[in-house]
Amino acid sequence: MDFLQNYGFLIVTMIQQGLLGLSLYFPLMAGQLSLASPGFYALGGYIAAIMGTNAAFAPLRESLGSWIFPLEWLVAGVASAALGLIVGVPALRLRGIYLALATIAFVEILRVVALNLSVTGGAVGLFGVPQPFGFVDRWQYVWIFGPLLVLVLLFTARLERSRVGRAFRSLREDELAADAMGVPPTRYKVMAFVIGAVLAGIVGAMSAPFLNTWNARQGTFDASIAYLAYVLIGGSRNMWGPVLGGALLAALPEVLRPLQDWRLIINGLVLVVASLYLPQGLVGLFRRRRAAPLARPATQEVAK
Amino acid sequence: MSAPAPSPAREPVLRAEGLTRRFGGLVAVGDVSFDVMPGEIFGLIGPNGAGKTTLFNLMTGLTPPSSGRLRFEGRDVTGLAPHRIATLGLGRTFQNIRLFRGLSALENVKIAQHARTRAGLLAGVLGGAREEERQVEARAWDLLDLVGLANRAGEDAGNFSYGDQRRLEIARALALDPKVLLLDEPAAGMNSAEKHGLTEFIRDVRARFDLTVMVIEHHVPLVMNLCDRIAVLNFGQLIAMGDPASVQRDPKVIEAYLGAE
Amino acid sequence: MELTQFIQNVLNGVSIGSVYAIFALGYTLIFSILGIINFAHGAVFTLGAYFTYTLAVGQFGINGLLKNVDLFPNGSPLGSSVPGFVLALLIGSVLAGLVGVVIERLAFRPLRSRGADPLLALVSSLGVALVLVNLIQYLVGAEIYSFPADVYGNLKPALVLHVGEKLVVIRTVQIIIFVVSMIMLIILGYLISRTKIGKALRAVAENPGTSSLLGISVDRYVLYTFFLSGFLGGLAGTLVATSFGIAGPYFGVTYGLKGLAVIVLGGLGSIPGAVVGGIVIGLAEAFVPAEYSAYKEAVAFALLFVILLVRPQGLLGRALVQKV
Amino acid sequence: MKRALLVSLSLGLMSAAVAQKVEAPITIGVAVAQTSNVALLGQEQVIGARLAEKFFNATGGINGTPFKLVFQDTGGDEAGTINAFQNLINKDRVVGIVGPTLSQQAFSADPIADRAKVPVLGPSNTAKGIPQIGDFIARVSAPVAVVAPNAVKQALKLDPKIKKVAVLYAQNDAFSVSETGTFQETAKAQGLSVSTVQKFQTTDTDFTTQVTAVLGADVDLVIISGLAADGGNLVKQLRQLGYKGLIIGGNGLNTSNLFPVCGRDCDGILIAQAYSPALAGSVNQLFVKEYRNQYKKDPPQFAAQAYTGVQVMVEALRKIDKKKKLDTWNLADLRVELNKQILAGKYKTPLGDVSFDREGEVNQKDFYVAQIKMKDAKNGTFVFLK
Question: Which end of chain A is more exposed for a tag (fewer CB within 10 A), N or C?
């Protein structure tokens, strides 16, 4: 029990950062390097913090009770999807590092706007965010972040085996060839981008009560780069990569806490060494070298 | 053995009207017009840099034309996005092979069935598309069988030999369920035994899938043997068109080829 | 807008912009050769300032070896502290260049020789930045260090021009930074377009594979690039520090993000582009009306977003045509 | 089912906490930003807290028993602060916490300490709403509203002809944003006209745009709310570009870190202080002497506030110990008792006489306005103005 008290927050943070890593993985499935997640994360958090503290929502809170929280997640998801569409449609014409830079710009613009609005609490941000479902301890958030992670992993595994997942992969492999084979690139790039945005938005909405407060420092350039590191260190070609990378890199500074002044120096060294010596990311260490030959399913011939 | 001769009464399946593409000052394709009749095997030859691949790119929407029109089954498809044209029924292979190299052969063929399937995001994730998936899978195996690669379905496309990659690309293009198949140098990199088999294979595919075929090829004996009609491009201009024998005798063609040597 | 206000805005914009530009020069140089963004550049920039400070003013134990160096025993025309400072500046910048070399050897070359995903270089350089910044913090703390006011001799701190009733003002340090960044641009331009090293560098940038076939040692030239970038970064860091002081280990890092906007706007990998991009962003920020000054921070990124949509290769970059 | 599990887990936790005995030596937690770009402030707090530990242990500890400070780095972010707090509460088993550095961090981590019933003293959290986070949250850092008006009045005393004012503030700093509000209200209340309001970021270094706007508005008083690095650069650039009038610096500029930044140009700035090294009380003079011995300069406000935070905890513990020996308490009860005692006591600290209201808000008697006098380009002093 002491263990949960002491490390509960960290464990949930690991799940949370794993989810944020995954939010980058979806666009990456379609070959799009987007660093926009912190923007949607911040948006989701603000939505939850505003719905949780703003007087305008008091009647809604009264009448809904704890149901306000799922509603916050829903609103955050929908709002992120809408913003994702608005940003994604023009931005996804860009490729590679240019898309990454455009999404960084998006995150930064959003941050400055949040810093200046009064509904977001300006520089101080919003505080006293109410706790869902009578949660008291931080580890209890495992009851919402945990199921979300499981759901998202199930979703991803199913997605990868579906028609849409194949379309994503074809875009990552060769956008032009995919286009010539009947896969509409823009449609699926935007879809992948929006899935990532919705996930980041929902994680943000769950995180505002988790952190008790929300402010413009939540969605920054630093976070963009951190999430990218999750994906690359964990492994970008398998859904477990970002989860593992996010969890481990979030835990690293805490694991190194006993080193005191040296902890961030070592943290940096670990990043360097990991990027040098784990070319396939962490999951590359576990992956079986070669898949077994595919077996043809026993079905009757489908007449053309 | 021999293909049914194109009946003159039928509408052309493809009609190019003055297709032109300029890159800066260079005219890569200049005012090219031709008809391709249903069921035909239509050859496109010409020296290197004559604009053959550019013409394919114009026809499949990868490069927008500077001017001119392309009609497919009577419908104006000029300027449509590549995936739209592919969906209408124009499948192609690439001169410098563009398979999804990191994906398995089976995946490559499954992906090209995208346009002929419907399952959306939710159906795919929630399992509402099982029957469709089963059909996609089965058809992919059939097509791999057709090109003789079913025993290597699980291997990454990038690991295949040159000739196998060309065959896989054809299987992938067929998976689109096209009405017209555009083959860009299908014999390049194949050994002579493979080349020999290719003629039979293309004819067989045409018959089996009721296709029209357009083929860019350098290997002259193959072209002469395979094609019903041939068009010759030089410096982006169409300099001759007709049945293999007459094209072979055409002085402009001889000059173009000799001049290019 | 009044004329004086306009002139003042232009001066403000150019002076802020030249700080951005001088930061971005070394940043973009590495991108031009390797196509990667070196996140450690901000830390090298900071380090350069600390090196020079240590040598010229000396509080970290070396005790200002060069503090009293006097190259002009009969009195320098600029003031007694200037020659010592310039010498310290050069040595400090060389040291920063060497740090750049070490970074290349330890954090970039292993990735390159393996042909790894270029994005990994991003993470690796991020790690290096984390190490350097926290190492500085560990060694010298988060305190603010400032160069003495007379490093540039007894120049007046600012130029004040009277235009009718109104004033137009600019700080001397800003003029120095602008002039130096222009000089560095010219030297760099000469180096790259006219010298043998420059030609080899361009060849490496065009096509590393072919260059090595032609007998150009790619690794060596990449090393030169990192030295040059580090040197420029160190020099720039010191110059900016003479204007604003060294505001702790994060001093240079805070320019990293704005620097990205600068080099993209100018054209990734374009050296004149870094200067043009810096000054354009500086001007754009200076012309934000006072009532919207809160949104000034977003201007650079709004510009970045727009330029990416309209002209992704940037103002001075070359368009890349994808081959089918 | 799930709910039942939750309840049983929570009950288990509570009973586990009840069973813990107080371990010797008594530990007090300090959670401030020792890394990140907030470390400039956090490092001063570490120094202040260390001095307090040394001084109070040298003067008998807690009635003869020495106590120990445990430091946990919060970094600059919210998650790091929660981790630091969790470590202090559960692993280090501290009786109370002094920290964190930023108000935003306090909004994040203080609720956790409050729910765990661990008393927290904010050494530098000045935003509105901090003591209201919970019963266990108090602060020794006075909110800005009290400090700012004095400075404006002082400026008017020095130069009664002042009419037009320019106000500048760091828009991304919570403290500066609320401080500038008070400054602007005060200026208006004193009949001054606010000619221009300029915003900047604490990470900014170049202020030419803001300074030219100020020069253009032709004002005779400039009021700055920011932190040391940005505020110092702003002052320097104001002076270099020819501004001659009075400057008021907000509480964020109340640190000798300002001196190296603006150098001789710092001379004459009026500073609104929540702490002054010049305060005559013997407690403060002892603290100043200790600090000068070790660091060769006057203690900054952040150090004094952290020192005060530790002092308040120690003196409250001494009182409790007199009633009932600390080693006979169990930890949970001691934390609750400590919180009560902190709020009930009166303390003679470097900040002057300090006590708390029921919510945990500090009642600080003395606020100061000082004027900076520079000895040379690097060293200066804050001269107390009556």
Answer: C
- Secondary structure E strands in chain C: 144-145, 158-163, 166-171, 246-247
Residues of chain B positioned with their CB less than 8 A from the CB of A291: 154
Residues A88/A190, Cβ–Cβ less than 8 Å = yes
Within a domain: residue C182?
yes
Residues B222, B224, B227, B232: what is their CA dihedral angle, to the nearest 10 degrees?
110
Q: Same domain, yes or no, for D185 and D213? A: yes
- Considering D253, D273, D293, which residue would you say is the last residue of a domain? D273
The verdict on a CB contact (< 8 Å) between D78 and A218 is: yes
**H/E stretch holding D31:** strand D27-32
In a domain, D63, yes or no: yes
Rounded Cα gap, residues A167 and A178, in angstroms: 8
Judge B/D contact: 3 or more CB pairs < 8 A. no
- Quick check: is C108 in a domain? yes
pTM: 0.94
User: SS3 letters for B197-213?
Assistant: HHHHHHHHHHHHHCCEE
Query: ipTM score of the complex?
Result: 0.92
Surface of B (172-211) touching A: CB under 8 A: 172-173, 175-176, 208-209
Domains contained in chain D, number = 2
Structural domain includes residue D28: yes
Q: Return the residue of C nearest to A95 by Cα.
A: C312
Give the range of the structural domain holding residue D203, as residue numbers without chain letter: 146-273
Alpha carbons D210 and D207: distance in angstroms, whole number? 5
Closest to A194 (Cα-Cα) out of B121, B84, B118: B121
Q: Which residues, 6 or more positions from A125, have their beta carbon under 8 angstroms from its beta carbon? A: A49, A213, A214, A215, A216, A217, D104, D107, D174
D114 and D58 fall within a common domain? yes
**Residue D337 DSSP class:** H
**Residue C319 falls within a domain, yes or no?**
no
Facing D199 at nearest CB: one of C169, C250, C293 = C293
- Is the residue at C281 inside a domain? yes
Give me the mean pLDDT over the B165-175 stretch.
96
Taking only the tens place, the pLDDT of each residue in A135-166 is 999 999 999 999 999 999 999 999 999 999 99
Closest CA to A11 of A133, A157, A137: A137
Residues D114 and D85: their CA atoms lie apart, in Å, by 11
Contact D246, D157 (CB under 8 A): no
From D273, D304, D320, give the residue that closes a domain: D273
According to DSSP, residue D198 is labeled: E
Rounded average pLDDT over B130-154 = 94
Question: What element of type H or E holds B241?
Answer: strand B237-242
Is C138 an 8 Å CB contact of chain A? yes
Q: In the CATH scheme, what is the homologous superfamily, with its name and number, of domain B10-89+178-261? A: P-loop containing nucleotide triphosphate hydrolases (3.40.50.300)
Domains of chain A and CATH, by start: 2-303 (1.10.3470)
Q: Cβ D177–A122 below 8 Å, yes or no?
A: yes
- Which CATH number characterizes residue D241's domain? 3.40.50.2300
**CA angle centred on D163, ends C164 and D223, rounded to 5°:** 95
- Where are chain B's structural domains? 10-89+178-261, 100-170
CATH of residue C153's domain is 1.10.3470
For residue B87, give the nearest of A159, A161, A182 by CB distance. A182
Distance CA D22, CA B19 (A): 89
Query: Structural domain of residue C99, as residue ranges?
Result: 3-310
Question: What confidence tens digit (pLDDT) does each residue in D165-205 have?
Answer: 999 999 888 888 888 999 999 999 999 999 999 999 888 88
Query: CA separation (Å) from D303 to A67, B61, D48, D141?
Result: 46, 70, 4, 12
Among A162, A178, A185, beta carbon nearest to B119:
A162
